[in-house]
Amino acid sequence: MGSIVWGEGVEDADADTVYVAVGKNAQKSQQLLHWALNNFSAKQFCLLHIHQPHSRNSFLGRNLSGVVPNEHGNQSVHEILDQYILTLVPEGVRVHKLLIEMDDIEKGIAKAIAQHSIRCLVMGAAGDGYNLGKLAKQESEKAIFVREQALLSCNIWFICNGSLICTRIYSKHTSEVETGRALLVLNSNKEAKQSKKVKSESTPDALKYLDSDDMKEIKSGTSNHSLNSKWSFNNIMDRSKLANLMFHEDESFESRYAMEIRRKEVEEQLAKAKQEVQKMKNERDEMLDELKMVQDHNLALMNQISESHCTETELEEKIISAVDLLISFREKRDRLRIEHAHAVREVNMVGKIGKADNSSYRVEFPAFSFMEINEATHDFDPSWKVGEGRYGSVYKGLLRNMHVAIKMLPSYGCQSLSEFQHQMEVLSRVRHPNLLTLIGSCAESRSLVYEYLNNGSLESHLARKDKNPLPWQIRISIAIDMCSALIFLHSSEPCIIHGNLKPSKVLLDANFVAKLSDLGIPSLVQQSLDSDGTSTICNNPNERLAYVDPECFVTGKFTPESDVYSFGVILLQLLTGRPLSGLVRDMKCALEKQNLKAVLDFTAGEWPLYQTEQLAYLALRCCEKTWLNRPDLVSEIWSVLEPFKATCIGTPPYLTSKKLRHVPSHFVCPIVQEVMEDPYIAADGFTYEAEAIRGWLNSGHDTSPMTNLKLDHTDLVPNYALHNAILEWQQH
Ligand SMILES: Nc1ncnc2c1ncn2[C@@H]1O[C@H](COP(=O)(O)OP(=O)(O)OP(=O)(O)O)[C@@H](O)[C@H]1O
């Protein structure tokens, strides 16, 4: 069915305009208009009338007093509406008119709401039922869309007899419809509360602060009113039914709309989820790429590691084979050295055999005449006498430009000339850096010519303690020198026993190198006294017997252990500087009390206590009465003394004392006792003057000049470091 719309000033209407639906009944319409004017503060109102042209109860033709319609039609409706406005509306309030021609009032109202975006509508509640929902259903989808766009919501106030019956929200897509329905049926406080939420700006002042209780009152008021007027009540119920019906018809549309909204939301969520999934896929792909890279890298590293392992194994094998090769080369080198040494020896032997005179093999041993001896000693001037012992006087002398010490043997030990010379030859072959060198002899005067040592004997140094006491380093160095000489003697073939070891027989050279003197003298002298030729002791009961092995008094014979005993006593004297009496006892006592300091001679300086204690125990063992309990010279005594070599031989502080030592001892060749010009290291580890050690080796020796032990080889290595040190020292 078509419709005609007349609007006067409607184009000026806005969202705040309050529409009042006026009908055929002038009284009710006036009540509506009154109520709207009283309850809305809006400045614009619009009278909405649905004209039913084909109805016999048409509004047209009636006047305010309900007169019959005339033929002027629409013009009359406007007049009537104008009359409403003139009589009811106060000044300052604008009122428009909206006239819609349609046979169905509900459709007309719905159309007006949709077309004019009515937000606020006041209409009668006791009139004919307006089925707004039906209208909505009949509208086309396009119309629905238009209405949804234009009509967000429309508040409808239902007025009956000048009072508000209920309010309703006409909407297609909000839950406010629910609220509207709740208000319409007026059956709960909760619903009334919800109604409060839907108040628009156009809500009448009277309703603005309505709560559930207010709504209850409205309900009760309405109910009371309905009780008073059955017609009104029934009419309201009809309206309620109508509204419910309208609502249910709207419900399917609402649900579709809700579903559409939901669908859109779901689609949006789905799109978001898809984006997320895509993003995660991308991330996963990136991570997979990275993982692949890492795996590749890992594989490459593993390959490298395995290659490294292979290389390592190969290198290890190479090292092992190189070591094997080195060992075999060394063995070969050693074999060659031995062969070389043998070859050299054989060459020397052949050379010697080739010489007509076998005596040339003998060490050249000067024989001095009595005249020379006499001259050297200035006619045995007592002022040139340096000492006198049991076996004769000792003179200092200058013989063939050499400073010598000449020992005059007693005449009672007279031997034949040949015997004396033979004995001299034997003694002259016994050479060691720590043995007083026998330079020559004078058979005529039965004198022996020795190198002269200008630092006197150990006895004299121990006796004058107050004047320049020997430092502990020199004392230990002396013990080392003595031990070295004894090892040499005892290891000689045949074994040579000193047999008269005591401090007076330990002479010190300019460098405080100790040299044992008087080797073989007792036997030389005793041979003439004792027919059996063995070494026996003189039974003089004096102090010198303190150095004699107690077992010799029982057996009457000297043994290598006898020298060890004497060495022990001298070592105790070196440590303590004490007289012989009670020396062993005091040392034992001190060690038992762990108070070595009590007996040590601290004029020698600060002894290294731990090592010194070792020496003290060693000395006591040497002094054991039973020779079996005494320590072995090489394996025990030397092993204790040797570590001191680095500290005590050729090192400060005593070397720095020019008063004591002018030349560092390690600059001096142990064989020739002169500062070395061309130092060479032999197989024994000692350094010698090249010419001296070569002479030693060439004369058939294969033993160390220092230890008399067999040399591993006869190779000599130049000692450049020592050579430089000597040169540097000589320059200063
Ligand atoms: N080569 C020498 N250089 C310097 N002084 C020496 C030399 N030989 C001996 N003397 C000195 O002569 C002193 C006498 O020594 P000698 O060996 O004759 O007798 P002794 O050892 O004192 O006693 P005895 O021989 O009766 O046991 C020594 O104490 C020493 O001072």
**Number of contiguous helices:** 23
Provide the CATH top-level class of the domain at 456-655.
Mainly Alpha
Apparent shape = rod-shaped
The CATH architecture of the domain at 456-655 = Orthogonal Bundle
Extract low-pLDDT stretches: 60-73, 127-151, 172-240, 356-363, 527-540, 651-661
Mean pLDDT: 76
* CATH-level-4 superfamily name of the domain at 456-655: Transferase(Phosphotransferase) domain 1
Query: What is the rounded Rg?
Result: 72 Å
Give the terminus-to-terminus CA distance: 142 Å
Q: Which percent range fits the helix content?
A: 40-55%
The biggest beta sheet is recorded as:
7 strands, mixed
User: Which structural category fits the helices and strands?
Assistant: alpha+beta
The set of bound ligands, ions and cofactors reads: adenosine-5'-triphosphate
- Estimate the strand proportion: 5-15%
Question: Assembly type of the shown chains?
Answer: single chain
The overall strand count is 17
Q: What is the CATH third-level topology name of the domain at 456-655? A: Transferase(Phosphotransferase), domain 1
